[in-house]
Amino acid sequence: MSAYETILFEADPQCAELRIVTLNRPALMNAMNTRMFQELREVFRLLRDDPTVRAVVIAGGEKAFSAGGDLKERNAMSYDTWRQQHELIEETFLGVRDFPWPVIAAVEGHAHGGGFELAMMTDFIIASETARFSLPETRLGIMPGGGGVQNIVRALGVPRGKRYLLTGDRINAEEALQWGLVTEVTAAGQARETALALARRIARGAPMSVRYIKVAASRGAEVDFHTGYALDIAAYNVLASSADRVEGVAAFNEQRPPRWSNR
């Protein structure tokens, strides 16, 4: 895979349809600078156009997924430069949220500020027992600007979400699991492998089914039930007329693995 300065980008050796993006500034707890945002944007653009991709895992290091934005870089920024960087962040994070295939975050250790926001932009989070999450922006004179406000109140409910937005207090892994912020908590050091194993299982599914389910679930959650259900049925009818539906039913009856064509 191509070399980058602030991230690692690789194919999973066990699954040809899976890609792994690793935040890679370990000396700075994977603090996100302008270069990292640029590289993440570029990678997700490349992945969107790659016809072989079916799932992506975003990981960090053992001590930190990401401590958030690089405040040393921002210390001398003018307002115009800050604004330009934030437009880049918005584009990058929405590229993760709206990515057509499932994206899973594997979180070990610290995930704060923009690092937490990036994790929440994925489809779901696998966290190790060492994970700690927070949105401490009120201590910096700003507010979460990477989707954190909207995502945390949707995950935790408005009152609890406001409590952690306004205080910047940390959420531990068990609390995150109980409140639905993460879907699974692993032993220390196992979040990445657990996320990869889950992504491999997803990648074995019919590609069109996976893609349409993600769209219907993501967009349907933003509207009323009947509008969301209409989206479900529209997608269902496309799948029912697909070659992969014929192949899936035939493979089940013939007791063999399906051979998906993505058609």
From TrEMBL:
One of its GO terms (biological process) is fatty acid beta-oxidation. CDD domains: crotonase-like. Coiled coil: none annotated. Keywords: Lyase. SUPFAM superfamilies: ClpP/crotonase (SSF52096). GO terms for molecular function: hydro-lyase activity. The keyword Lyase applies. Belongs to the enoyl-CoA hydratase/isomerase family. This is Enoyl-CoA hydratase. The lineage of its organism: Bacteria, Pseudomonadati, Pseudomonadota, Betaproteobacteria, Burkholderiales.
